Request: fold
Amino acid sequence: MSQSAAPALPAALEDRRILALHDYDVLDTPPESVFDDITRIAATVCETPMALISLVETQRQWFKAAHGVAVRETAIEESICAHAILQEELLVVRDTHNDSRFAQGPLVTGPPHIRFYAGALLKTPEGLPIGAVCVLDTVSRDLNQAQGQSLLALARQVMAQLELRRMLARSERVSQYRASLLASAGHDFRTPMTTAMLAFDLARHAGPEKLDRVVRMGQEALQNVDNGLTRMLSVASGERTFEPEALVPTDLNTVLAHVATTHATAARRRSIRLRVARTSCTAISNARQLETLIGNLVANAVKYTARGGAVLVGCRRRDAHVDIEVIDNGPGIAKDQVDTMFSAFRQGEHSSDGLGLGLWIVQKTAASLGITLSVRSIKGAGTRFVLRMPATPGTRAPAPAPA
Reply:
């Protein structure tokens, strides 16, 4: 026989708990002295031969630190800590032989022959249980009040260390982003700055009939520099840039028309056929952020599609959702690069310069708007981005156009 399984948490809470545990990125990491020290202190203070820092997953419990125990994990069915995470703070089992939940458990009837268990809850700042600091003995016994309080204090120290590790990891990622940004910024700005300087040089010698066109060329180049600086600030300021704004019924035809107007000149300059189809669809979104999101995809398509190519932007209703598609016949993206293409400072191998900030911003903005983003690409044949968002409730799909 085996011990009884721990009662299941509500599914939604269990999902949040597991996500919180994984967010610490600590599972299956090598031993660390700071955690080993905590288990040694726990065993010493509580006068037990064994102590563990146990992290409880769905199918197993894994030990970040183990004092007096040789194994690093056990099946969840064998876990007493799976019961401990259901307690508010401290679970004490004075004699497992007299507890029907554990008396027949393999860790009780066999090595390490657990007779006594006390576990202090590991709880995230949001109150989600992820494991326990526990002490074990092979004889029945109890904890005194001081030992119980010490075990709770050690559990708080474990969580403080996990929070510190997470904060340091995030800080390191932000530092890497900013370092890459500063090191590579010249690539994004080189072309528009060169164009602007050329325009100003031409303006000195241009006649009245050409002056307006040359000035517009310089203005467009400087606008591209300004857009690049805006994207840089988005990255440098961290993820607060992508806080969602109010989501309301949004006229997608107006959004797409603004995108078409904004990017028409850049497409024309590269002899790209930019077609934005009219639509009567509406969706729950934020017009300003959605326009920025689609604009980044269109700008990326125009920039990397060969001269004479085509970019199509269209919209279609699919049941309770609306799909906006940005399609190009550019160089496409290698299959092994699709999964990482939205990372900051990365682009496909066809790119010779630039930071790849546009696609990173697309992903962050889509997430803040609750938009599902997918991409299909064939190397050498083009790319299709699909943005799926909720349609405005109470509206019906537009009637199909006459054949």
